[in-house]
Give the backbone structure.
Amino acid sequence: MRPLAGPAALLVIVVGGVLLKYCSHPEPKPDRNFMEAEMTAADKDQTGTCYSVDVVLTANFALARGAVKSWTKLDDNRWTYKVEDVQSGPAGPVHAFLAVTLLRDGNRVRPVAYETSDKEAPSVEVGVKALLQVPDHFHSTKVDRCKQAEETH
Amino acid sequence: MQPRHTGKSLIPRLIATVLVAAIAAAILTACGTRRLDDAKVTAFIDKADNAARKRFAPEICALRGKTFTSHQTFHAEGNRGEPAELTIDRKLFCSEAGKFSRLEQYVLERKSIEIKLADDLKSADVHAVYTEKLPFYETPPTTASDYRDVQVLETVDHSRVGIEDGDIVFLSTDADITQTLVPKSDMPLPYD
């Protein structure tokens, strides 16, 4: 049997790998280019913010302990990022959430919708402005375009 | 002297071994629950209650089906307005179970249980009444003892259970919860 031990182990690994690939359902997530693209402000001029999608979301939500974060694919270029949690309200536990929908527009990503569980949710422009304050506060890493511009000044 | 096996004679044996293993796996899968009865559902609810008492999130979560939803109506003590309504999916429920595991003091008592099996015996409605006692933290606590009141929750629970991949799971839960606050000096909770 000893000569077959190697091939048998290989067979188990290959079969296991194939089963894992087809039986597991990894959480959907936008591709790397989408995550590393510069996010624009949700203003009329779609001003560049100097921060990538990944940086904005990490700065805001990486430390949100206990919150569930998920991506939903609307189409190839449009994704919704949702952060949700159960929080204690005066009348009992409430479902709190924030969802921002992002659209790939060339080499940038534009916020197109912003929803929260608050009764009076802010507009997408106001909501995204609040999200951008966090990477500003932490002096988070900027995209190459802005790094180069800062170096030349 | 034992004759050495040649590779040629062992390959069919290997194929036979793989086939036997596959058939055994198929039989084991088929051995899972296919029909419910009162005893199976009662045992499942006992298991779920014990998982809750242990506050062990992976076990609590594993007993919920893939499309599980939880809805609760919460009547907080002193709230004169509408009760809080909360609907969450399995993912958020499991995240909450993780927070639950941080509680060091918790008591769960089941007061009653009624089981109604579906005609096809593939699902059942379970109506149960519970009393839960746990600390009421007004603000995030520094230690487990940072609370003034114990909250006593009287829960009327309607759950639907079914079979998923051979296992009994909760498909949905609808709970009506009434909260009463009692000073902790009047109701010490055990540390377990």
